[in-house]
């Protein structure tokens, strides 16, 4: 076992025959400022973790040392770096993913005795008993990322949409109830609804249509007609067109009257 400045250096192997492997540096995590998500005495800190290493693979490997409570990544050590790493990834329909870079990892065990067992490991073996790698790398990893990013599964997408809409409806119902009660939220804001002193109007299609017609009519009455020269010219041309149209309609009516009369003196 190699140690370097307080870190235990272990190779990370993807196959039993691997000779040239990246090294991962491990030690017990401790900082001056307490972090409830990384409790002292139960958190293992890892540096130089390759980009292709996943949370599930670390759970599988270090699960041999004891039950694991959580596995988190970050771009660099720091209390707020884990939040930045996962920022935007949990939002509905978000395509944001953590960067594909070397990273640090925090493994939180349920028992403090698991830290010693984890530090005693001679290597991090990312393969099963038959020698098969438990993670995807190279072309296999790129193919999986392409399918997950650009090829949608209709069933999963439908379930995701249904889940999002159910949450949206729940929030809307809560907002409507808050508007009825008029109670202030945690920040002191009061949601104002149509059940208050000034009820407003009911936002139905018919009501909105009537309001839009009223606004259009009001704008039309305010419009200045025959004020500019081009308006006078266009008005005259429009009158001529209407007169010609009326003349043709009258000619057609007279023709129909002549055809329909029974008495024909000539």
Care to describe what's here?
The structure is a single chain. This protein has 266 residues and is α+β, with helices and mostly antiparallel strands. The protein folds into 2 domains: 2-149, RRM (RNA recognition motif) domain (Alpha-Beta Plaits, 2-Layer Sandwich), CATH 3.30.70.330; 222-261. The protein contains 7 helices and 7 strands; from the N terminus they run ββββαβαβαβαααα. The protein is elongated and about 125 Å long. The N and C termini lie far apart (127 Å). InterPro entries: Nucleotide-bd_a/b_plait_sf (IPR012677), RBD_domain_sf (IPR035979), RRP7 (IPR040446), RRP7_C (IPR024326), Rrp7A_RRM (IPR034890). One of its GO terms (molecular function) is nucleic acid binding. Belongs to the RRP7 family.
Largest sheet: 7 strands, mixed
Shape, per Cα inertia axes: elongated
What's the CATH topology label of the largest domain?
Alpha-Beta Plaits
Number of strands: 7
Task: Note the total helix count.
Answer: 7
Low-confidence stretches: none
Q: Could you give the distance between the termini?
A: 127 Å
Class by alpha and beta content: alpha+beta
Assembly classification: single chain
Superfamily (CATH H level) name of the largest domain: RRM (RNA recognition motif) domain
Highest-level CATH class of the largest domain:
Alpha Beta
Organism: Drosophila erecta (Fruit fly)
Domain Ribosomal RNA-processing protein 7 C-terminal: 152-266
Family: Belongs to the RRP7 family.
GO molecular function: nucleic acid binding
């Amino acid at each position: 076992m190699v140690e370097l400045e307080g870190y235990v250096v272990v190779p990370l192997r993807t196959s039993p025959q691997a000779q040239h492997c990246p090294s991962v540096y491990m030690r017990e995590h401790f900082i001056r400022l307490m972090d409830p998500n990384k409790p002292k005495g139960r958190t293992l800190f890892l540096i130089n973790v390759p980009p292709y290493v996943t949370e599930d693979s670390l759970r599988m490997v270090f699960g041999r040392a004891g039950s694991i409570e959580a596995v988190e990544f970050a771009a660099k050590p720091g209390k707020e770096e884990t939040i930045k790493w996962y920022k935007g990834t949990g939002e509905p329909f978000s395509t944001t993913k953590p960067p594909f870079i070397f990273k640090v990892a925090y493994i939180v065990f349920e028992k403090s005795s698991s830290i010693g067992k984890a530090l005693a490991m001679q290597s991090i073996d990312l393969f099963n008993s038959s020698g098969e790698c438990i993670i995807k790398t190279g072309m296999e990893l790129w193919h999986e990322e392409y399918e997950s990013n650009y090829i949608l599964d209709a069933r999963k997408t439908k379930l995701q949409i249904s889940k999002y809409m159910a949450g949206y409806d729940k929030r809307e119902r809560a907002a409507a109830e808050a508007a009825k009660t008029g109670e202030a939220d945690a920040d002191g804001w009061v949601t104002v609804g149509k059940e208050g002193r000034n009820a407003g109007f009911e936002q139905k299609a018919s009501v909105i249509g009537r309001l839009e017609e009223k606004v259009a009519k009001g704008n039309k009455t305010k419009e200045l007609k025959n004020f500019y020269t081009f308006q006078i010219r266009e008005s005259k041309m429009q009158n001529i067109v209407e007169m010609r149209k009326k003349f043709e309609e009258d000619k057609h009516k007279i023709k129909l009257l002549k055809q329909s009369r029974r008495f024909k003196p000539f």
